[in-house]
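[Solved] Which block belongs to which protein?

Original post:
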Amino acid sequence: MWRVVLDSTVLTSALLNPHGSPARLLDLALQGCLRLFATPRMVAAEGRVLRHAALARWHGLDDHEISLLTKDLPILFGLVPDATTRRSPRSADAELLFCAVRSRADFLVMSRPLTVSMQELGGTNIVTADQLVKLAGRDM
């Protein structure tokens, strides 16, 4: 079973659009074909993203509906403990990379490219949702 970390844009798309490749990744996780990982910070950030005014106008969900949508995320994702550090909070990219390393992820699914020097990190392959869905289709 592949170990996978999703960036915030991929996760948001998966939660709001049941027809795309990101949603297919959630389906594969629910079927036991993938194991998803996130940090508590990443899960909390998803709730904030969904509550952002511009996105809320688009999806039309109220605060209660967003809470219902996000309350089960810690169950769907294996949680990687946040690092205990006194430094300033990590950037979103640094948080993703931390999660990928700590979870020993096979894949980090990104909606946008990272810098070339980060294309592979400790055996973690950086791919798009479309690429991983195609790989999963071949492997299953």
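(Second protein starts here: sequence line, then its structure tokens.)
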Amino acid sequence: MKKLTLLVISILLTSVVTAGCGWHLRNNDTIQIMGNIGQVHLDGDQNSQLYRSVAKALKSSNVIITEIPREAEIIIRLTNQSSTSRTASVSSSARVSELEARESVDIMILTGDGNVLLKTTTISKEKVFKYNEDNVSTNDEEHDMLTREMVKDLSSTIIRRLNATLRQTEKNEHKG
């Protein structure tokens, strides 16, 4: 009974100390928007994984996604999204041993009235995975998994770029 009481007290103390110092678990799924943005127009292929991932990140920051660009404070354009795969290496018997998967997108960030905050910038992510020609279904599953990871990484990068752009804009406004 003493061990159980000691364990409970230890857990409570640990909880109080970590909560009191401001420490908390990080949510790695989404990066929060740092600026005070009410509405964003997200321009891109609404059926793409990337569009949905960026929209989810914006919504988790309590940003409203509007269909009407002139109602938005910020416009994020996602263009030229592409998914490619290529041979990364071959074995001594001239067979494919590794594939490289690549996801890329061009982004542009504008104000609601059309002023460019971030010129068109290409963001890309690459991952290499072992290819097994004897097990095509496993290769496809791994490729799909890597694609989802890369899309999530691209989405996080877009939100980080948005945050950096907002900080820079804020700095420029304070100087002027």
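Accepted answer:
You had them paired correctly. Confirming on the second one: The mean pLDDT is 84.
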